[in-house]
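2024-03-11 09:14:02 DEBUG pipeline.ingest accepted 1 chain
2024-03-11 09:14:02 DEBUG pipeline.ingest length=344
2024-03-11 09:14:03 DEBUG pipeline.predict start
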Amino acid sequence: MDSLTVDPRRLRRRALIGTGGIGSGSFFALSGNHTLGREESRGGRFLDQRDYCKLHIVAHYVQTLLGDPFRTVPIGRVGDDEVGSRLLAEMSEAGLCLSHVARGTGEQTLYSFCFLYPDGTGGNLTTDDSASAHLDRALIHGAEEEFAACRGAGIALAMPEVPLQARAALLDLGGKYDCFRAASFTREELAEQTARDLLQQVDLLAANLEEAAAGAGLSDHEAEDAEAVVSALSRACPHMLISVTAGRRGSWSWDGSSLSHCPSCRAEVRSTAGAGDAHLAGILVGLAVGLPLPEAQQLGTLVAGLSVTSPHTIHKQIGRESLRAFAAHCGLSFSPAVLSLLEA
């Protein structure tokens, strides 16, 4: 895959070390748009769509877009099953360093069941007794040499689908070695104090609108006003950069002094699953090459916009050339700095 046009000397960050879920899943199209009832039986059909978990999605895009000499190191666990073998092969093909991905004997790889309504909305059910659920602090600390090797020039990424204690250990190591610490959490996690306390160790929070509202302690009703949500969250964590996505409404970013809004791209949507993770990946790529957050947000919007044109949660054809072609007709204007990354 063709990586972005980046002079290695421009790289502000030269490695990403992250933890989170590594797994697969299935998509199931429900019949009827009404919300699935608690005791309801509903028909539908499986879709030919490949699902991937959050850490894998972000790590894939970051590595393929930045290419050599950037180093992406996932820390995780998969089972000793066929799914785990397939995922490891795909991650290796994308150029990820797999030295710190363990295989659990007798464990099953994380699996998600995504259900979709005819209108394109849907939900996600994820196993909570998978190999990823057994990831512990010891595995995180086993990668300390990776943090030391990129002291002051790394990105530490904490993603859901592994225990909070493991993510806390990763953020601790990120702080110890002066890494830029990025994180995302589920809405349920951010409704609890434990995850909100971890925000004090986060330099960039990536969230959808509902997650951000939960992190700010706001009600569902208050979550409708994106600017108010970001404002409340920034007051609670004044040290933190913030990226908030809201589907077709676009995204907002807070860089510590100003709020920026970026509309969504015009695209032929095949599936929105994974778009938020693609958006985060684009932002991290932008920050790694020295873009300010509002311009990194533009790159995130571009990557996310192209990602939804694929039925799979990783669009493996995303690269410099495909992004350049997409930018030309997606209906948005991009800064010269972003466009220069797409030049041949």
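2024-03-11 09:14:41 DEBUG pipeline.report Residues 293-307 form the longest helix (15 residues).
2024-03-11 09:14:41 DEBUG pipeline.predict end
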